[in-house]
Design brief:
Blueprint lengths: L1 E4 L5 H15 L4 H12 L1 H9 L3 E8 L2 E11 L4 E9 L8 H15 L4 E7 L3 H9 L2 E11 L2 E10 L19 E2 L5 E10 L6 E5 L7 E6 L7 E3 L5 E3 L5 E2 L10
Helix pairs in contact: 1-2, 2-3
Length: 254
């Protein structure tokens, strides 16, 4: 088996492997799977990923046939290497392909400066959860991933134990306990729930002080609530241009 960097020419094979893998491991509808693959691995999305200097996209092939792939990203602000996707064709599982992809991914992310590794996996994917636990990862947090308009619980695994947050709460960022929208409605940022942006963290904002109902995001760079999120999970501040890359959701397979 050969491991190599993905290229634009692999697009069709990547989508085919992802579709078969997700169909075998998730209870998601065919429409949801098709929508997800189009969002994350459509030609434009894939080209953007492959052009990203912080991304690592490895292909596993045998006799020039793509059998699996691993996509990850190095977060400069978080100092973490995040394993976003790890798919193996169901017909090729059990041959250690997922393990070899993961180990090469971990090695290269560390060489690039990652101080910790994280893996994201949906709650209902037992194989993916077991995979990370077998490699010594522990579930650190959980969050909501929106897939085709429907919320799903996603677990975040961290190598070696409990995660110590580095990004979300930069000490130089002052976040108020409450903020006011343009319409004069009081909302409540959560300083413990944030994601890294290109210029500063984005803090999740709730409509109630108990943080029960989500409202949107607070930009930690310029202190505004004027943010927008697209269908792929990309968050952008309309004032300063702070940008959070699209969120990813998936798991790992043997």
């Amino acid at each position: 088996m050969n491991l190599r960097d993905a290229t634009d020419d692999d697009a069709d094979a990547i989508r085919a492997v992802a579709q078969r893998s997700m169909g075998a491991s998730y209870s998601l509808s065919p429409r949801t799977i098709e929508s997800a693959i189009k969002q994350w691995h459509g030609n434009d999305a894939l080209a953007e990923t492959l052009a990203d200097e912080d991304a690592l996209f490895l292909i596993a092939e045998e006799s020039e046939e793509v059998l699996g792939f691993a996509e990850s990203v190095l977060g400069e602000e978080t100092e973490s290497g995040d394993v976003l996707w790890l798919h193996v064709d169901p017909a090729a599982r059990g041959g250690n392909i997922g393990t070899e992809l993961f180990e090469r991914t971990r090695e290269e992310l560390r060489e690039r400066g990652a101080e910790r590794l994280r893996g994201m996996v949906l709650e209902d994917n037992r194989e993916g959860n077991d995979f990370y636990e077998r490699f010594g990862f522990e579930k650190a947090t959980e969050r909501t991933a929106v897939i085709d308009g429907e919320p799903h619980t996603e677990f975040v695994y961290v190598e070696g134990g409990v995660e110590t947050e580095r990004t979300p709460t930069d000490e130089t960022v002052s976040v108020p306990e409450a903020a006011e929208t343009a319409n004069g409605v009081e909302v409540f940022p959560d300083t413990e729930d944030a994601d890294a942006g290109s210029k500063g963290p984005f803090f999740v904002v709730y409509s109630d002080p108990e943080h029960g109902e989500r409202y949107g995001y607070y930009c930690g760079n310029c202190g505004t609530l004027d943010t927008a999120m697209d269908a792929m999970g990309r968050v952008q501040c309309n004032d300063c241009g702070n940008l959070r890359k699209p969120t990813r959701w998936d798991a790992a397979y043997l």
